[in-house]
User: Fold these one by one.
Assistant:
Number 1:
Amino acid sequence: MKNFTATGYSLKNVATGRLFPDDGWMLDDASCPHPSLIRADYDARQLDPKDDSYGLYRFCDWLPVRRILKGSSAPVTYKSKGLAAKLGLENLYITFNGYFPQIGARMTTCSFKETEAYSVCGRLNPDCGKVLVVASAGNTARAFAKVCSDNHIPLLLSVPEDNLDALWFEHPLNDCVKLIAARKGGDYFDAIHLSNLVLKSDKFLAEGGAKNIARRDGMATTVLSAVTHIGRIPDFYFQAVGSGTGAIAAWEANMRLIEDGRFGNHKMRLIVSQNAPFLPMYNAWKAGSRALLPYDDDQARLDAESIDAKVLSNRKPPYGIAGGLYDALKDTDGDILKVTNEEARAAIKTFFETEGIDIYSAAGVATASLIASVQEGRVKPTDVVMLNITGGGEKLFQQGKTLWNLAPSLVFPLDPSPEDVIAKVEALFE
């Protein structure tokens, strides 16, 4: 194992500013009367990246981890030539999360969800004696499965049955990883509901999603990669969002970098995008509402099924909570855009033709929103732009390989009996 000393930190309530110690897995502030995210307040005020051999943990100064796990890779940022020339941008920087050895990117799950998984699992106490529970629309599950399998961490995944094709792997997984599914017709929210039923048993531990500081600060390494490469904080940040957690993480990283003092004192404008017609955050934002607008469950499932970027179909995102996406957009003069399947597909084709690598649908949504912003004059030719490519290189990685798919141990109806779920899932780990 690399030489590693965990950086010290306190937890800070975003709504109240209260600082308090972390017991090792706190997801919120129990003393706060209303919902609020908590943040890590690191003792290290300046970032001192380690060498590339540390993988993701080269940014461990600003990660709440107690150990380094094997197999990680950090995001890779490079200055675009092809796409930049096509769009007439002088300072377009692409932060690539995926498999693209030509630029040094080696995330073998091909998704930036690896940044979350290595950080969250690095925070987890290996002696906690509980099974980690992660609900996912697909890519997050693949990343956590790889990390937990490689490092022998007990894990229960909950994924919609319609999204199981995302659970491909180069090799069979360790038996410590188990999968349950919400039956066909269900979506990410149904997978979350199923996982919440499991968590009524004290044998399991909630990963926490956006509430977990390790998840957000793992995702924030995309911005740390970009800023340390560019030498300054960008003017614009582009990303597609399902929960918005990555954009919240980008905002939090931005504030730490301002405090660092070496990269500028401005906030990048967060320009995030959703895949139409699944637009809960877009609709709320355009209505000027902190609260999400009413969204019929059946319609939401239909809309989620119709979008290419299934990973963006979160019906209960951390949008209005204190410290959530609404606050991030307000603070950065940001915006939410909408992108159709057709626009995303065209952007994927353009990215491949100009940058030479395949990208996921969600990254296509982000690229399409950048293209539209340039065409509309929002982004000027000299602006410093960070495009967060949250997944890519899958076709390249899979070439010539025989893949292994993780099959669910149990498939549950969309309205299962809590007692039935708990009994059957507990039995998987006996």
Note: The mean pLDDT is 96.
Number 2:
Amino acid sequence: MKFRITLIIFAGFFLLLAGINAEAARVKDLAQLHGVRNNQLLGYGLVSGLNGTGDDMKKSVFTLQAIYNMMTRQGITINPDNINDIKVKNVAAVMVTASLPPFAKSGSTLDIQVSSMGDSKSLAGGTLLMTPLVGPDGNVYAVAQGPLTLGAFSFGGKAAEVQKNHPTVGRIAGGAIIERSIPVTLGGDGTLQYQIRDADFTTASNMAESINNSFGPNTAFPDSPGTIKVTIPKAYKDKLIDFIAAVEVLDVNADTTAKVVVNERTGTIVMGKDIRLSTVAVSHGNLSLIIRDDYNVSQPNPLGEGETVVTPQTNISVIEEDGQLVLLDMEKGVSIGEIATALNAIGATPRDLIAIFQAIKASGSLYGELIIL
């Protein structure tokens, strides 16, 4: 019952959107400048100070080796033949990840995520020891260190255990200091290139048109459905940042392909507002759904002035075993929202809806893309 009410609400929401034209979105929300992106960093380190929840040195050999290397660098002499004699329970090997944003300068800080690699039961209360973070090119771009924040715990004995959230992954806000920045060159050849996040011919054309209307003809050109080349005007040669800021706030009528996304494992159905159906009759189990398009024609008197008016009318009916009838009248087209509402009204389950949508798509009556997760 709860799912039926929720889906009816969603169907009503999409029905409302069906009567609204594509709304304008800003350029900065639809596209990004080529070369302006985050860069992934990765590091291997140790978390110490755990309360007996660290890695088992007999099973996690890499943790034992890392402890030996760290102690050697700190001037502590250990016979390599006796490395297996190291017995610690308060240390865990972890992988440290971070995202280096564009234009970040040396001395700035980054948030980092710390994830256990071995068989540690919990990282609660631990402190990450100094860990270099490297990029894909092998260079060190940041150094991480500090106490972890988990928001989780795990306690227990041999017979029982209590756990909240996920105790083997934590974060450190501002836990890494940037040591090297990545240079970003913009407008070096007098042009900029915008990459549309969801490539679409219509969106690319509309974006170029919006830029040309604001800065003059031939300023922007849609090189492909996913890229827009923009020539920097002479008035902005020395004010590149001002030009980019002015372009980013321009409104663009974005467009996307009509899609239906279904997930049979969770029973989730998400429908785009532009999804439409042609005339189709559906029977699923003890449910029967009929969609029929009718046209009401109004003609003027033989000697009167006026025009012939044709009004399309769509009738949707759903019949169950006892003859229950649900009827909807539409002035233009049929949306999946109305069908979902009609089927929900007589108790169709999520699995029923997903099967029906797949069958409608296979019949060629669904105008849009069906994505199954």
Note: Residues 2-21+258-372 form one domain.
Number 3:
Amino acid sequence: MEQNPNNSGLLTQLGNAYCDNKDFENAEKVLSKAIEIDSTNIPAYKLLLSAIGELTDEGYDERIYHDTDFRSKLAFDIAKMADKAVKIAPNDMELRLIRGSIGVMMPFFVGKLEDGMADLLMVTKSDAPKETKAEAFYWLGMGHQKQAHTYWIKVITEFAQTDATKLAFESMQPTIRHFDPPKYQKPYLTVEFTLGYRDELAPQTAVWVEDKAGNYIKTLYVSGFSAFAKEKQSNLDRWAKASGFQGTDAVTGASIDAGGHVYVWDLKDYLGKKVKNGEDVVKVETIYWPSMADQFVSTPISIGLKDSRIVVTEGNIVPYLEVNYFAVAK
């Protein structure tokens, strides 16, 4: 660069190196210069949009403190730059993906959400690589989610005294179940887990306990459809085969959805008999429709004279499972 400071291609390479090194401020400077020298340098546009995006993610800093309009001006600048790049290379699907994701991420006042989603839809219908299409579908989902929240916010702010406002608040709130220890007499066991996925319908889910040898002990929860499907039940295969649908009436409930859930076991089997000390296995199975996304997770837990705790973090459908056994205090 010292020998040839006005070479747009070299500036682009240097900007790429700065991005790789996470030095986005210097990347922004050299890439802006590269575009100033060659206004048709599409690789430089792509890198510059990425670098500026990273800079905007840095949070509240001195620039924002001294200039409260900094972020809004930056948002308009990014949108304008993306429009210019797409005008130069309208058939570049990677560039369409970048502009589309920017349109989804931008604040509402920039007014680029619908245009961004149109870009993303174009990518999904193109011959772009699978990875590019997958990312476009992800950002389309984010865009639709953002649109939903925009409508809900409108309901809450403009129609505050209506029943729809309550529905909007409920739709925004994640499901969280709380555990109140004083309500229970030791010994007991708690099963706490998170459902980290949402489909068109709430999933079928079952939580149950078996002994170490695989003998069924008790179902702690099963969603209603599964419990009453009986011989036609085909989705929660593991739970169905283990339980034989025994003792489900008292624990069948409405289908649970994304969020945190807690169930308490009083250490009695489905016939009401107290279980013996030893190692039992807690199991959670869930399956969604229509995606058929599913996960099965289990963990052993020791029941005896001492408290015990197990945490399992694996997968994305049930990303967190925590089992606690609370023994009788000596």
Note: Residues 227-234 have pLDDT under 50 and may be disordered.
Number 4:
Amino acid sequence: MADDLLSQLKTMTTVVADTGDLEAIRRFEPSDATTNPSLILQAAQHENRRARLAEIARHATDIDDALDTVAVEIGSEISALVPGFVSTEVSARLSFDTDATLARARALIERYGRHGVGPERILIKVAATWEGIRAARILEREGIHTNLTLLFSFAQARACADAGATLVSPFVGRILDWHKAQDPEADFEGDRDPGVQSVKRIYEHFKGHGYETIVMGASFRNSGEILALSGCDRLTISPALLEELAGTEAPLTRRLTPLDAETSAPEPQDEAEFRWAMNEDAMATEKLAEGIRKFMADQRKLETLLGELRKG
């Protein structure tokens, strides 16, 4: 009888937990873990964190200080449970401000250091806007690893690799959502899934041109998308889908394999080329803006909660 799908997937892909739920991380034993404002909000609302949340709110210098304290405390707890990277996101509010992103990223790394977690364990998550990618280039040169998130287009992926980002997170499910909304009757199963196709193209480009940037598929809507990308460098998966994979016994065939690298990488895009490519890609433009808004909406909910606790 075949092993469960999760066990097989772990032999060909680094499995990452897309959650701030410590119990889920303990159960599924992923190599890495990712968080974002939505996941931090969920984790912060657990009843067992309420007293600590109130203490943070009362002692913080301002709401930004409180937000970063919460994110780093949860991230530090997660770092004790996984051997690899923990991703922590810079505020979505800073997605179009390179200098502010740099300052916030450095501050997060400093906070982690006070918890005994070194920079080699942390990926600073930044939205893959032009300004965010510029910040990532600078941070990588300073030895701060980055995870470029909310990635929906090949133009974004190319710019991230040119910047030397440690990792990119192309969003599979949200790409599928957009195409389903445009053509509800279309068949997007398996390899016809446009989100799967996007990750495959990025993976093949990076491997074919010798980029060291890690490709981590994210935002899955079903296990079929995950299985179609088996062999990808990393896949970040929600607890519900980890549960499904762990409970299913079936043979799993590797779908992605590195190609031999070309002798040289293509010419990097400049800002005008990047912005034009994004303008031509309605899906990427809409989903990037929507993703920033959604992350910011959950951050505001956490800000409100911390503000109420701060007032007592």
Note: Residues 190 and 224 are 6 Å apart (CA to CA).
